[in-house]
Amino acid sequence: MGEHQPKSLWEYGVPDTTTGALSSIVRPTFTAANFELKPQFIQFISNDSFIGLANECLVSHIASFLEKCDTVKINNVSDDAIRLRLFPFSLRDRAREWLRDEGVGTFDTWEKLSKAFLVKFLGQEKTAKLRNELATFQQHDDESLYEAWRRFLRLQRQCPHHGIPKWMLIQTFYNDLTHEFRIYIDAASGGSLMSKSPVEAKKLIERMAANDNYHPNGRNSVKKGGKYDVDALTSLANTVQALSHKFDQFKSVLL
Q1: Residue 100 near residue 52 (C-beta atoms within 8 A)
Q2: Which range has the worst mean pLDDT, 37-51, 106-120, 232-246?
Q3: What digits encode the pLDDT tens for the residues 63-117?
Q4: 3-state class of 157 per DSSP?
Q5: Tally of CB atoms within 10 A around 45
Q6: Main-chain dihedrals φ then ψ at residue 74, nearest 5 degrees
Q7: Among 158, 194, 157, which Cα is nearest to 175's?
Q8: Pick from 148, 155, 166: which is nearest to 208 by CA?
């Protein structure tokens, strides 16, 4: 009584898929009743699919996926249970094939799955490439300060483990701005940005980028014969520096 019938030779030759045994993901159990992931939400996840192309930002994909998952909270259902069930729907093509090929029952926690995903699609080669792009960053001739700063931040976000010290990042960004922009930033800093601490320098750059009141193709610069009108920019820089000096004198009088 209670004994199982032995499998036939034919059954031994067919994989058992009744419990999802072929999946690389082990789906956590839960005690919640009537648990269901709505088709609309699955489609919501699928709309932002990661393929595995070189130009895709892996970190942004994970951040977006977690933001979406956090909109679903169900009593007695863990975050891992939701994330592990939904993550395959956020992948397609090459990335989806990678997940299928990882081996049966490889991932039973979100931490294991996300780490393996990062190792696969943000490995040593891509990390080295992104680090090099940060270290050799240069502002484009037709790029505003705002655009250059946002692109520099985007590179850092794509490679959060770059390991480059903060002071070196700020120095790299400043040194590889166009000559015109360095003049403008130095004037706003009251002399030279290099005399500021990394924190002060970053705040100044962020403020100037946010204001975005100087653009190579805007009112503060004119192209003549392929060159910028540096005299107009130098005049502007001298004015800003003079105002900064007067402000410092005014503060010293008050003190």
Answers
A1: no
A2: 232-246
A3: 999 999 999 888 888 899 999 999 999 999 999 999 999 988 889 999 999 999 9
A4: helix
A5: 19
A6: -130, 130
A7: 194
A8: 148
Whole-number pLDDT of residue 227:
47
Taking the C-alpha atoms of residue 201 and residue 182, their distance in angstroms, rounded to an integer, is 12
| Confidence check: pLDDT of 236 > 70 | no
How many whole angstroms from its chain centre is CA 238? 38
Pairing mode, strands 223-224 and 227-228: antiparallel
What span, in angstroms and rounded, lies between the C-alpha atoms of 175 and 19? 59
The total of other beta-carbon atoms located within 10 Å of residue 89's CB is 19
pLDDT at res. 225: 44
Please, are residues 164 and 202 in contact by the beta-carbon 8 Å criterion? Answer: no
Per DSSP, 35 falls in state -
Average pLDDT, rounded, for the chain? 81
Question: Up-side HSE of residue 121: CA atoms within 13 Å toward CB?
Answer: 26
**Cβ neighbours for 6, distance < 8 A, ≥ 6 positions apart:** none
Residues 6+ apart with CB under 8 A from 76: 30, 31, 32
Three-state DSSP at 91 gives: strand
Query: What is the predicted pLDDT for the residue at 224?
Result: 42
- Which two structure tokens, joined as six digits, stand for 11? 């059954």
Cα–Cα dist 28/99, whole Å: 17
- Give the integer Cα–Cα distance in Å for 227 and 222: 8
Tokens 């990882």: give the residue: 102
| Confidence at residue 53, expressed as pLDDT on a 0 to 100 scale | 87
Q: 136 is written with which tokens?
A: 């050799």
